[in-house]
Amino acid sequence: MAITDVKQYAHLSDxxxxxxxxELDAIRADIEExxxxxxxxxxxxxxxxxxxxxxxxxxxxxASNNRYAWxxxxxxxxxGKIIENMELGHNITxxxxxxxxxxxxxxxxxxWDTTSPSVHWKKSHNFIHHKYTNIxxxxxxxxxxxxxxxxxxxxxxxxxxxxxxxxxxxTLFEWGVAAHGLELSHVRRHEKSWAEVRKDLRIIxxxxxxQVGKDYIVFPALAGRNWKHTLRANAVANLIRNYxxxxxxxxxxxxxxxxxxxxxxxxNETQAEWYLRQMLGSANFHAGPLLAFISGNLCYQIExxxxxxxxxxxxxxxxxxxxxxxxxxxxxxxxxxLGRQYWQSFWTILKLALPDKLLTATADDAPETHSExxxxxxxxxxxxxVDPATGKRRGLRTALRELQAH
Length: 406
What we know:
The protein is mostly helical. The chain has one domain (about 5-330). The chain contains 17 helices and two strands. Strands 1-2 form a two-stranded antiparallel ribbon. α9 (about 195-220) crosses α10 and α10 (about 225-255) crosses α16. The longest helix is centred in the middle third of the chain and has 29 residues, at about 195-220. The chain starts with 5 loop residues before the first helix and ends with a helix. The model is unreliable at about 375-385 (pLDDT under 50).
């Protein structure tokens, strides 16, 4: 089962968690106070680069039907779409740049280059996902309603298609995100009416019309005799963007170590406990400056979940301080190579297509589904968080290491 008591699972006392929360609050305050021209220059340059890539791609694609020009134009367009969705659209709509009071990059004004309307995304992602991160039954991003990614969800026959649904979601990712905004799981729980769904469908249809018209009618028409050339390039560029966005998001949410939680854990949660849940429920991947940029700095998914509205270009420096806190409180800092994190996510999707009776680990101690019960914590154990022999903290990271040793 998922984690019911995050403090018990983390091997932290109430005082530890509140102290951790104060230290994370201090990080937020430091970044907020130091925001300035350096950050403004970063985002303006990112916007300029993205627009130059797209304009350059459009010119190349319309001016020539040469094979090499098509490859270059398609690559530029795909890269521009990735930057727009990941570093600009996702982060701007989080309000990361609202402090600049620039209407061009304000969260209330930005409409991104994808079929999902930003108004739906801000509700399903910024509010629901970030508030209820990885809480089974509350966060619709846990499997997106179409895949089984935790043993807390009972197996049903349709889940045998997990790998196929995964492939389709990656291919049609922008369409999946748009459909996600309909919140059909809320309809099934009678928390949303079909009248509201129809209203949302009209909003989506309007956005889809603009996107399809732009990519598959207007720009091919402007290319004249090269219209087929441009049409194919636009379709491939959208596929490139879809697969990359899908991979980055999955690597931040479904590798081993990105924990799931129960509703009981959330009911009496403090701000400090929310911080702890974000740290345990997210995963990073290793990236240099270029890979970080084209992933929207979501290689720092832990830092993003802790501070979703702080500028993304500051996540690298924030990560240094978060790692130090993980050392101090003996907490795991879940990270790995991009390939490793994706493979773990894919392996979870693949094996959970099968019923539990065919799987080996238990629901409390599987790589993708942990709970505090895996430690069989006894009453009074919280009094021994510090090793009396060494004076060092014995937290979750040490406990996990000791379990692996046995």
